[in-house]
Design goal:
Order of helices and strands: HHHHHH
Strand content: under 5%
Oligomer: single chain
Structural class: mainly alpha
Number of helices: 6
Helix content: 40-55%
Distance between the termini: 59 Å
Shape: globular
Length: 124
Amino acid sequence: MRGVRIHVEAHVSQQKLLPAAEDVLVEWAKVLGRRGVPLTYSTLTTYASEISGKQIGICWPKRFLARHPELKLKMTTSLEKCRAKALNQTAVEGFYDILEGMVKKFDIKPGTYGIWTRRECNWE
């Protein structure tokens, strides 16, 4: 259909986050998943509010997840227990592997943003 935009494109100006910001949030959620930290409505809402600088409504996370079916929400009863299990040698090494990949991908120079190597922190 000529001249007619699809529903998503027509309402971009009404969204709390621009598509590029949503892409950043999706990547962040994937990194959390690889680290073993479950995605919750609360963490999603908090980070979306930080990115947008606006208050995020209670229904926003459900609509966001509908737009990004590759993300799955994890309902937990004891988040602290899950985090404790996730923090182990393998998880920490995995985190630094992901961090190293992101530093290379975005060409972050050493010493910026308070990033240290494993050796500097005595974590080898």
